[in-house]
């Protein structure tokens, strides 16, 4: 809860909050900090409502979690971009694609890139 300032990580309301798994608990069977986010009941419902055009998917929640880490100074901008590159490569692996070898191509680490 400290990570999100005792507010919903999405809409920032201080209403009753709930801990939510970014990747479903049924899939990961773990309560790890990196997979947990604090949501209000409305945003939590948006995560599970597939018919809602404003649905919160895992990709959006992962980005929000990453943004919270940057805001809280957990990672520098450079570290965040490196983590994002590894996450992209991992997603390609999960999709059955073989990513280019990390470090073989240019990664633009300029501020604001």
Can you walk me through this structure?
39% of the residues lie in helices and 9% in strands. The chain has 4 helices and 2 strands, in the order E-H-E-H-H-H. It has a two-stranded antiparallel sheet with strand order 1-2. The radius of gyration is 16 Å and the shape is globular. The relative contact order is 0.12. The mean pLDDT is 78.
Lay out the secondary structure.
Elements: E1 17-21, H1 25-28, E2 36-40, H2 41-48, H3 58-71, H4 77-94
Antiparallel strand pairs: 1-2
Q: Quick summary of this structure?
A:
The chain is built from four helices and two strands; from the N terminus they run E-H-E-H-H-H.
Q: Could you give the order of strands across the largest sheet? A: 1-2
Secondary-structure-based class equals mainly alpha
SS summary, helix count: 4
**Main beta sheet: strand number and arrangement?**
2 strands, antiparallel
H-E string: EHEHHH
Features of the shown structure:
two-stranded antiparallel ribbon; single chain; 113 residues; mainly alpha; 4 helices
């Amino acid at each position: 809860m400290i990570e999100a300032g005792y507010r919903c990580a999405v809409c920032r309301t201080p209403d009753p909050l709930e801990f939510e798994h970014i990747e479903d608990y049924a899939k990961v069977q773990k309560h790890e900090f990196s997979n947990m986010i604090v949501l209000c009941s409305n945003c939590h419902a948006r995560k599970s409502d597939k018919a809602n055009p404003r649905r919160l998917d895992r990709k959006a929640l992962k980005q929000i979690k990453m943004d919270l880490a940057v805001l809280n100074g957990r990672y520098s901008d450079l570290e965040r971009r490196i983590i994002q590159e590894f996450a992209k490569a991992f997603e390609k692996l999960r999709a059955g694609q073989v990513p280019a070898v990390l470090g073989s191509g240019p990664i633009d680490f300029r501020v604001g890139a």
